[in-house]
Amino acid sequence: MKTPGAPSDLPYINDAVADRDFKYYIFDWDDNILHMPTTIHMERRRDDGTWEPVEISTSTFALVRTDTANYRPPRDGGWDAAFRNFQDEPEQNHFIEDTIAALERIEHGEKPGPSYNALKKTLREGRLFAIVTARGHAPETIEKAVRVFIKYALSEAERAEMMSNLRGYRKWFDKVEKFGTDAEELDYYLGLCRYAAVTHDAFRDRMAQDPIYGAKLAAAPHAAQPELAKEFAIRDFVEHVFHILQRTNCLRHSIAIGFSDDDKGNVKTISKYIRAELSKRFDGIKFVVYDTSDSTLPKGRKVCVSGQLNLPGF
Question: I need a labelling partner for 278 at 20 to 30 A (CA). Which of 46, 94, 145, 228 fits?
Fold first, then answer.
């Protein structure tokens, strides 16, 4: 059976997914997938020692966030005021608006983030993924942004390929023979993925209740908390994938998980975390970390490997 409206050689159910190795992906969002126009409100020290309000991009913030001598959050409101555009609001959704704006700029020729094509490939192939960002949005908001990404970034043929692969995985993993609508199958797939905005209140509450990370979070200075929170989110996704594969008796397959981020501090922290903990706890999984902070390297730079694997798309 063929997929209606799809290329003639595309099956309705791609049974060939059963022969694939298992590759999963963890993506930072800002300046890694998309160059978002969202700005951060900070104060910068002038030469005379006084402070002036400035709005800086996320890429600039990644460079100056630990420079407390010259940059600080607003005196009135602190970090909540600094990141007020990175939170969900009842009447305006900055994240979705800025995601659409970033995607429209790509349509008009602007260069996308270094992991833009990797996310496209991940979606086309129907592989599980996680979005782990320092933003403060609800998981539902991030999932909605992924749906916007699918609408703008994937062609009709690519969306058909994605659905064919998703039905293949459903048949293989869940033994499904009768499928829902495309919308229902997409809902199921995106529901299996993970969306972690590590400054969202619910995420921080869950992290604070963790017996290990609760203590780490309480002791960490503010500048180090996003890196620590990303560790927690990555551990959560790896455990999620492991349990799915364990439940379906698939742990004997080749398994790899890739992580990409444009923040050098995050890359360094996560690389150390993988070496020290994840690679030992999950010794059957291959881990790859990519530093995408250098804009001259279109696919980023591999900085940490546990096992030998080159993940396509990075």
Answer: 145
